[in-house]
Please model this.
Amino acid sequence: MAWFALDDGFDTHPKVRKAGNAAVGLFVRLGVHATRHLTEGHLDGAIVRTYGTEPNVRRLIAVGMLHGAGHTCSRCPQPADGGYYIHDYLDYNKSRAQIEAARENARKRQQKGRDTARSNRNQRGIGSESNSNRSRNEADSAPNRSRNDPLFDDSAAGQGGPSRRDTHEGVTGVPSPPLPSHNYDVADVDEESAGSRASVSRPDGRLPLDQADFHITDTMRRWALQTFGPGLDIEYETQQFVSHYRADGSRRRSWPDEWQKWIRRSAKFASERRQQHPTSNVIALPSGQTLTGTDAKVAGWMAIAEQLRQQGDPA
Model:
């Protein structure tokens, strides 16, 4: 998992104070998006507009926290036409190459742990089988030894020396320990797998969400935006999706396909809710604007009073 870096003086920085809370909130969301998708600070214009309003984008540009195409900052690269760039992003955050290298090293450590655990299981299995065979061989040879050995060794039974009963009967019938079972459900916590903590993927290719390294891409976001419009909160739905399946422990061959199903269902449910509960407290004004909430209620009362006055009611 990558992290978008903010130092402990971020909240009191002059640029942050000047930009205002709403614009700063947009900045944080854009930074998290860039880090999650390894864009190294580059942002697509359509994505920026889905996160925040144009006035807040202009505020971030005005204070120098965000750059548009054609900017004059000598320390930051130019974004693509219509895109944006987070000021000094790589001064505080890891590059794509660094993050991918760290993930590859973590993957190798996990694989090494799994290989070690598998080797240990195999060795324990071979050792158990050898012990079992040795026990059976000793059991088979015990009767022959008992016919040739003296009844007691050097002394009477129970008089300080071992008897044949003490030395031979306990050798036979030693059960071999059961082979340890594979643990398919316990994930590595600290990326160091060992013993029964090793996590093994199923041969059918199904993986839990965390092991699949699921994350949404810009292409997936554009698909959702073009298909369902800006009314569906993609970030919220994705967080719900991840929380649900992480807790559920389900396995899938393709988590992006499962995410698309989730988004389609969410859009369908939202549409059905709007149809079942249409907005009833909206009043249209002659200018084409609308009033909602308390303003709409007050306007409605005034309209009723005017209607009663015209009908001759003293109210």
Q: What stands out?
A: Confidence is low (pLDDT under 50) at residues 151-159, 163-200. The first helix runs from residue 14 to 19. The first strand starts at residue 42 and ends at 43. Strands lie at 42-43, 66-68, 84-86, 207-208, 251-252, 283-284, 290-291.
